[in-house]
Amino acid sequence: MASCSGCGPGYRSPLDAMKGPREEIVYLPCIYRNTNTLKPDYLATVDVDPKSSTYCQVIHRLPMPNLCDELHHSGWNACSSCFGDASRKRNRLILPSLISSRIYVVDVETNPRAPQIHKIVEPVDLFWKCGLANPHTTHCLGNGQVMISCLGDPSGNGKGGFVLLDGQTFDVVGNWEHPGEAAPFGYDFWYQPQHNVMISTEWGAPKALANGFDPADVAGGHYGSCLHVWNWDTHRKLQTIDLGKDGGIPLEVRFLHDPSATEGYVGCALSGSVFRFYKTLEGDWAAESVISIPSKKVEGWTLPEMPGLITDILISLDDRFLYFSNWLHGDIRQYDITDRRKPRLVGQLFLGGSIVSDGPVKVLQDREKQPDPRIIQGRRVPGGPQMLQLSLDGLRLYVTTSLYSGWDKQFYPDMIKEGSVMMQIDVDSVNGGLSLNENFLVDFGKEPDGPVLAHEVRYPGGDCTSDIWL
């Protein structure tokens, strides 16, 4: 963790963060729900230091005390939004459970290479105090609290509200939003205090997505297509932006890292689109589609057309490049976003996916050749590229292949049996370009208790998807 005399956690600015130390270990939640192993999920600590004797190995596993939690996205008790507060430390990793609605608070300070559970927030606290369930995204706030978005209510219906935790005790304080103002669906969020705004996104109703994806649920109104604009100071919902048919299932939302910026991007899974959202001259907010990945006409798949399924996006700390993964098509893309309204494709790499040349799916009409399967150190990459994390200096992109166990089981059943992997992509951060590091592979199919699904990557000192600057 970088710090200086009199300063709090994180870095003074995004450009300062780019000068931070190289990552040596990373944390990943590993999920056993929906696999053939009846064991608790766990937090894996992985050595990513090329100089280490345990490079590319899981060096510690912290099992949760319960079954079928579905650990998903993690966050911090403090980040760069607390940089001005010398009393704060980034010493607790917050691990919400998407299915059980538990929240685990993990001590990463006592021994960063062997974290331990500090506290468990039980589901009943979310249910009774907030009327919320299925926690997803965690962000620390500059005031010392921790905020977690939720997907639904305790009955499994869609409800996009936000839980506040005390940043010291981690007790549930209550809702961030006002009574009756929760969004119809919830998922991700990002705030920008200089402009007194927060933007949140929508996935779907938990009871619709819990065990797989049914296209009829889209037609039935159980999945979202909107962005929600909130007043950061008053917590009031100001505006709902319906992205329409080209904005189905807007997932990860990213403001530019520059805290004075009035724009950002959101990836829409179902429609294969990236929208730019921005503040208008009138002072409200709008969105426009700036990237579109066409669905592919196919044979041998569940539907006659296969969307790319954009499932994760991130922006480099210098706000120069946008990255995203097409989980079904199997490629990662790098765009130069110097011209914010006209992203330019500068890098593309296929890493598995559903249209590999030796698979059952035949692409009928496409300019792109069906890619060959990706083999790394003798291991065929299962699934497709999903969660992304970029090194602070922008030179290394870490990729995992599991999306969510219920959808993994449906779309990539082999990954359930074989486990997921973590890969590393070398990035040309000058001209653009992506190349696979053939010397890096973390094979979660070889775990002691059986193959497991590894999800999101976090660095102990913070990263470009968890830190927000004020």
From TrEMBL:
It is a peripheral membrane protein. Its EC number is 1.8.3.4. This is Methanethiol oxidase. InterPro entries: Se-bd, WD40/YVTN_repeat-like_dom_sf. Transmembrane segments: none annotated. Belongs to the selenium-binding protein family. The keyword Iron does not apply. Catalyzes the oxidation of methanethiol, an organosulfur compound known to be produced in substantial amounts by gut bacteria. Selenium-binding protein which may be involved in the sensing of reactive xenobiotics in the cytoplasm. May be involved in intra-Golgi protein transport. It catalyses: methanethiol + O2 + H2O = hydrogen sulfide + formaldehyde + H2O2 + H(+). Gene3D superfamilies: YVTN repeat-like/Quinoprotein amine dehydrogenase. Keywords: Acetylation, Cytoplasm, Membrane, Nucleus, Oxidoreductase, Protein transport, Selenium, Transport. GO terms for cellular component: cytosol; membrane; nucleus. One of its GO terms (biological process) is protein transport. It holds the Pfam family SBP56. The keyword Membrane applies. Its main location: nucleus. Signal peptide: none annotated.
